[in-house]
Amino acid sequence: MRSISLAFFLLVAMPALAATPEGLSSWDAQYARRGDAAVAKQLDETLKKAVESAPEDHEVLWRAARIRNWQAEGSTDAKVKKTLGRQVWELGDRARKVAPERVEGHYYAALGIGAYSQAVGILTALGEGLEGKYNERLDAALKLDPMYERGGPLLAKGRYFYELPWPKRNLKKSASNFEKVIAKYPEQSRAWLYLAETLLADGEEKKAHEAILKVSQGSVGQDPAEGQRVQGWSKKVQAAIEEELK
After folding, report:
1. How many whole angstroms separate alpha carbon 154 and alpha carbon 161?
2. Which pTM was predicted?
3. Domains parsed from the chain with CATH numbers
């Protein structure tokens, strides 16, 4: 009788888990095809249900944050980006609460705050006190694994120094973070794009042009969805650089 009671207690006390190795592999395979909007939408819906079924499963939470961040980042509607950014932030916070020793929750929570801040405007975000919350989460990710997602935390930090208004803006620190990523992952097109924008803002048009060509002429084979998105973004940046070079 006692063993039955103990077993029942353990079942009740343990958080429900929705992720199986096969399920994780399937979700990751779908994520690799996220450039197809229908695939991204289906994955988001699947993970939303998984979160509802297993609200404390770390593997589910951060993957739900990841696909929602992809959608937030790609949205040109400020209201949609704000809503999605907030959801990424919340999912990331839930993941880091469950597994604070893992990088994913801290990283995606920071990205969610970043997307939310872009949607409401950087000055508004600073007024809401989000800078400290962003850095708390991002610095934790940097400490755990700065090269997670091919340098994702370093890219986020570099972008932070780029997007801040004067006098907080620091283009040298911004470029330094991107260069650290490029040194390890020379094929990282997002790092080259961000570096090009930073160099352009710093009056280094020729270096910016060299950097942007790494994007427009680079391969998208390693991650087609990411590569194609970044190449799409690069067109406007390249045009601005070439205008400055005239």
Report:
1. 11
2. 0.91
3. 21-144 (1.25.40.10), 152-246 (1.25.40.10)
